[in-house]
Amino acid sequence: MVAAIRYYNVWFYLVLWDERERRWFSFLEGRIDAGERMAMKDIYVWCAGHGIRYRRRFCYRPDFPVTANLWNLYSYLRGRIDMGRMGRGTADV
């Protein structure tokens, strides 16, 4: 099963192989639905900490101003670099 989380311009696609991973995702989904604020780094760390494989993708959003899209692209690229340095990039599919 593949689950998706949208964080501004970034889609996280989580690959959930068994019931245990689906249950973990339901807890994360509940936290997000309850309004808990999460940054991209929090999602990266959560996936890596639970051993859940993921893929992330940046998508331009026409409903955002160009400056916001550029800032979000910068944040996305910066997050990829930082997580790679921390060794968390290994969870990427």
Largest sheet: 3 strands, antiparallel
Radius of gyration: 13 Å
Number of domains: 1
What is the count of β-strands?
3
Order of helices and strands: EEHHEH
Architecture overview:
The chain has a three-stranded antiparallel beta sheet, with helices on one face. Strand 1 (2-7) and strand 2 (10-15) form a beta hairpin. The protein is α+β, with helices and mostly antiparallel strands and 93 residues long. It has three helices and three strands. It has one domain (2-91).
Please supply descriptive tags for the structure shown above:
93 residues, 49% helix
What is the compact description of this entry?
With about 90 residues, the protein is α+β, with helices and mostly antiparallel strands. It is built from 3 helices and 3 strands.
List the helices and strands and how they pair.
Blueprint: E1 2-7, E2 10-15, H1 19-33, H2 40-50, E3 53-58, H3 66-85
Antiparallel strand pairs: 1-2, 2-3
